[in-house]
Amino acid sequence: MAKTPKPLPALDWLAPRLTISRVLTLISFFALAALLLTWNLVYADLHGARTWVILCIELGPLAMLAPGLLLGNARAHAWTCFVVNLYFIKGVLAAFDPHRSWLGWSEALLSLALFTSALLYTRWRFQHDRKLAGE
Q1: String of b and e for 11-23 (b: at least 16 CB within 10 Å)?
Q2: Which pLDDT does position 2 carry in this prediction?
Q3: What is the pTM of this model?
Q4: Where does the chain cross the membrane (predicted)?
Q5: Cβ-Cβ contacts under 8 Å for 119 (sequence gap 6 or more)
């Protein structure tokens, strides 16, 4: 027996949540990028590695997602949820190193905030679009 579909929330309920989740996504996205940039340029001991190579590896995935996030694309927000898990894992691993503890916890918390806000934006954006389509 098929379940009855759950009714979609009203547009006036979804609109402020879309705005808040998008703003939080962008803030945590740029804060994570700034944290990685600052750490690698100022604090990191790279043991002779080229700084630009490390920055390209760490900021490359974020740079690929940036255009979609800035445009408010729901699929880019969904892909962000997948990609940001790598930064969460890296942050948790760094959190247990006494020399990089503050970096690790900061990276883990920012990536968790980015994941949560991007996930909520994706969900509410698809609900908003379905509601506008007359569903």
Answers
A1: eeebeebbeebbe
A2: 62
A3: 0.90
A4: 20-39, 51-71, 78-96, 102-121
A5: 77, 81
Residue 82 lies in a domain: yes
What is the extent of the structural domain holding 48? 13-132
Residues sharing a CB contact under 8 Å with residue 22, sequence separation 6 or more, in sequence order? 72, 117, 121
Q: How many domains does the chain have?
A: 1
Residue 116 lies in a domain: yes
The reply to whether 2 falls in a domain is no
Chain centroid to CA 123: how far?
14
> Over the stretch 39-70, which tens digit does the pLDDT of each residue have?
888 877 777 778 888 889 999 999 999 999 99
Q: How far apart are CA 67 and CA 119, in angstroms?
A: 17
In order, the DSSP letters of 58-88 are HHHHHHHHHHHHHHT-HHHHHHHHHHHHHHH
Q: Taking all residues of the chain, what is their mean pLDDT, rounded to a whole number? A: 92
